[in-house]
């Protein structure tokens, strides 16, 4: 056998087993560095596009800010902002929105993560079905969702008033924390949560990681908590990120169902305090950005920002 | 590189090397829809033995391995480890370490934490975990790579870490699912030797799935050739090559010529002007057969009066393989020492002969 197919002569143990970033560049890399350098393409267009996009984004914000601080005939005045914290309903509505966002994130992730992992591991052929189901809320207008919810809420007292479920039915509509909004927002967030998690699951070889962990003695809960979730960190953060933005800005459902989270409160005060309502909008944008920044930081995998040698494109060698 | 396996954890066995277990497949059958992956597989692997499961794609070798690992349930049959039926034991409670084809390291963990993963599952203390992970990394030749993450290591290094992780719990059975197939040739050869050296020093029973016959023949104590879910032959590499039990094994392992021949009344076969003894089953329906002959059992000498013509010559270092045309349109391959093949350039006439060895025959296809 050996006579038919000559094997390569043994070499030093790791001559070809070069780690990325270890400094040993393959021959091809040398050739690449000797090749004539291409002239960099002009960056004018990039700058122009960036400038236009930035202007489109920032000009309305700046105009809004100027509107809140510039009082005609009086000059600069920060009264809109100083009065904000004392405004009736500001703190309550903000806390309510944040609470709803947290509950929606938890509910949607608790629903979606096990379902998508199960589909990926157990029934990959069901993935298109699950995808269509998760994407449905995108094509159903919120007003249709509200109509459906309203119908159910009207139907409830008539049929449930003499059952133990009635108290539960009332509890989900408690205006201090309307669970019914969490349920509605969970449905609305499903497409975004699905997309983010699906991308994360595609990037990880879930079946192999699960089997590797199982062969090391890990139970199923251990596999999910210690192997899958840490490796889905970025996509979990992305899903939470999008859900947070959605809940903080959602107006239609909350308004039509008669609840008063932050977005509804802003519209409510805008009639009487136009300047303050714009100040609140700017503030809510800043708060949202801050939360999104925190979430994106939380989604950064420490493995990718470690101080160990990084992979350089020229030295990476697949071996 | 040291070859001392670190002591087991508090809940584990003593510090003595864990003896390998005896693994038995009994009548394993597994079908995926209409496709039968395992069709009554019977195989016994002795303690400390390295057995390679070899076969073409879809022959059931990976399914057999996954049944041992607990990732597949057979439709019928059982798997015994040291006489104990583990067929229905969950994967995480089997005493088997596994190395996968794809780099299966946990991307969010460093090499050290990957190796210590199983120890952490077993609640081994952190100091002991670190110590043992360091010893195992040393064992696989990566003592300085504990802090590296998988994306900072090459494929070969990742597979070494995966091997260390599989050995961390001192399993009695090591399962290798084509662990070298994603590596380049040099790394593959190095890692192949290291795996074998470790396996021998630890005495761990190892099942090694591969489609690369060179790997199987060079590493394994015995090679089990599978075809369509059935075991064709399980034998030591030399026996498998020299005395294949079936035509499938003969043609799958190594290179084989098929030459037209005719069975004689004396139980021999006439082929290329020679009479050779027949080994293995003889077709009863016809006397017209095809004779299976290894290229190294074909001789060729330069002869202007010879009936064969050299079509091409491939140089493989010590050996040169000649492709020759025989009268009647038959082609034959012959392996000659390169020093003897100098005169047999393409176009040269040659006399072809066959070594006097028993040959396998199969009925000639129409």
Automatic annotation (TrEMBL), chain A:
PANTHER family: INNER MEMBRANE ABC TRANSPORTER PERMEASE PROTEIN YDCV
Residues that span the membrane, as ranges: 44-67, 94-117, 129-156, 176-194, 236-257, 277-295
SUPFAM superfamilies attached to this UniProt entry: MetI-like
Principal subcellular localisation of the protein: membrane
Organism, scientific name: Streptomyces flavotricini
Similarity-based family: Belongs to the binding-protein-dependent transport system permease family.
Protein name from the UniProt record: ABC transporter permease subunit
One Pfam assignment: BPD_transp_1
TrEMBL record, chain B:
PROSITE patterns: ABC_TRANSPORTER_1, ABC_TRANSPORTER_2
GO MF annotation terms: ATP binding
Keyword Lipid biosynthesis recorded: no
SMART domains per UniProt: AAA (SM00382)
Nucleotide-binding recorded as keyword: yes
Family matches, as InterPro entries: AAA+_ATPase (IPR003593), ABC_SmlMolc_Importer (IPR050093), ABC_transporter-like_ATP-bd (IPR003439), ABC_transporter-like_CS (IPR017871), Mo/tungstate-bd_C_term_dom (IPR008995), P-loop_NTPase (IPR027417), Transp-assoc_OB_typ2 (IPR013611)
Entry keywords, A to Z: ATP-binding, Nucleotide-binding, Transport
Region feature (Disordered): 1-20
Entries under SUPFAM superfamilies matching the protein: MOP-like, P-loop containing nucleoside triphosphate hydrolases
Protein name: ABC transporter ATP-binding protein
Organism: Streptomyces flavotricini
